[in-house]
Amino acid sequence: MPLVGSVGCPRRGPPLKLARRTQHPPPPRTIAPKCDISSPPPALTRRAVSAASLLLTAIPFPASSPQLPVASASETDAEAVGGSAAVLELERYTDQDQGFTLLKPASWPKVEKAGATALFQQEGKGSNNIGVVVNPVRLSSLTDFGTPQFVADRLLQAEKKKESTKSAEVISTGERSGHDSLTVYEIEYSLDSTRGGMKRIFTAAFVASRKLYLLNVAHSDTEEKPLDKQTRLVLEEVLHSFDTV
Predict the structure, then answer these.
(1) Coil, helix or strand at residue 156
(2) How far is residue 98 from each of residues 60, 168, 212, measured CA to CA in Å?
(3) How many other CB atoms are there within 10 angstroms of residue 83's CB atom?
(4) Which terminus of the chain is less hemmed in, N or C, by CB atoms within 10 Å?
């Protein structure tokens, strides 16, 4: 009978205290937020913010980093005299450690720059360059972040917020299949900046092994000397060659 009395009594007052004690242990409370973070809606938001920060800072290679080269007066004069329509012979560059490969102009040497996984510059005109950035990310696929147009819009928003940017306009967006059916986004846009004048930017991005791979190809495209068709074809070939190994 005492057992029955003790069972009946908790149903009124004490049971609340007992119930709280059973729900109160710290382990369930600490585990619950982690489950919430990995649940689909919040996780996508956090992933988008993470990927966005990378896209907004890493993709616009020549424009976003003060350390990266911009066109100097001597470079502009040299281009006006000698031109930039010389045939660019391409060669394969592969980084097995980081897991990417691409074609690059054989005459563009690799240079070391902080924040760049790989950077190749045209000799005598470093503002014409090819840059690659690889960073860890919580995305499993680039499609988790958004469509190519969405990425392009975010990229242009970032460019337009910079004091050095005069204008920026998306020219085209698209996607293709890379190695093992990997989704690769490609974006082309024009950029007019006080840090290099008019440029044509070709960007490719993909996610593999929880890493965000970003390729940025920048080349001058002024009214006086617009990007010629031959050079454009070469740069597009570089863009399309960017892939995982």
Answers:
(1) helix
(2) 20, 31, 11
(3) 10
(4) N
